[in-house]
Design a protein that fits this description.
Length: 237
């Protein structure tokens, strides 16, 4: 009888498998969503990827991981264009120190991807990015989607509706607007794209300012506004 009970318990545990494992705790789950639509040339997409890689190699990002003690983030980088085109470039990865950040930067640098071309379906990208949090193996008090784009939503589902759906799931949406074509994007993103607690828009007016804008955004997202030392506050501005 004891043997039968033991075998029954073992069978339940075996069937449960990975689902029985607890998600790994982190401070932040972050989806970095890069625009690869028709308005982005191959060179511009590569520049976006290099800018994200450079941000993860910076000392400021390493410092932001130690604000208020040891922090860790789970991050993935994706690219998107028209409806149903979102692709994972670098899968979910835990980053807890400078060495982790450098390894993640190297993976971005090794990911040579052509633009997806087509329209700019920002709402569809938000819906798909929000789904990436489900079953990713991590658990955090903050979940953030960060959209990087030089355009506005012109196809797919309504961007404001997608934003509201994500916010209802406890997800914050931030944006980095590249102002090489439309100088009014910051206002558009503020009104129609970002949402959730402490959401914000950052802008880059040129390639020269793009990497710095990504760095400021990333530092603010990792460290958060509360309790940031003055040096990190300056880096995030």
């Amino acid at each position: 009888m004891i043997l039968i009970r033991t075998l029954a318990v073992a069978a339940v545990l075996l069937l449960a498998g990975p689902a029985a494992r607890a998600d790994q705790p982190v401070d932040l789950e972050l989806v970095m969503a890069v625009d690869a639509s028709g308005s982005i040339t191959t060179g511009a997409l590569e520049f976006q990827l290099r800018g994200h890689a450079a941000a993860f190699r910076s000392p400021e990002v390493a410092d932001s991981l130690t604000v208020g003690g040891t922090r860790s983030v789970a991050v993935t980088l994706v690219q998107w264009a028209g409806p149903n085109t979102l692709e994972v470039v670098v899968p979910w990865t835990r980053v807890a120190d400078a060495a982790d950040a450098k390894r993640f930067a190297d993976r971005i640098g090794a990911a040579t991807r052509p633009p997806l071309d087509g329209s700019t379906a920002m709402g569809s990208a938000i819906d798909r990015a929000a789904d990436l949090f489900d079953g990713n193996g991590f658990e955090a008090p903050r979940r953030v989607i960060d959209l990087c784009s030089n355009g506005f939503s012109n196809s797919g589902v309504d961007v404001e509706g997608a934003r509201d759906r994500a916010v209802a799931r406890g997800i914050t949406i931030n944006a980095l607007a590249i102002l090489d074509e439309y100088d009014w994007l910051e206002e558009y993103y503020a009104e129609s794209v970002i949402g959730g607690p402490f959401s914000f828009v950052r802008t880059a007016e040129s390639r020269e300012s793009f990497a710095e804008a990504i760095l400021r955004k990333l530092v603010e997202e990792i460290a958060g506004g509360d309790g940031m030392p003055e040096g990190l506050r300056l880096a995030a501005r």
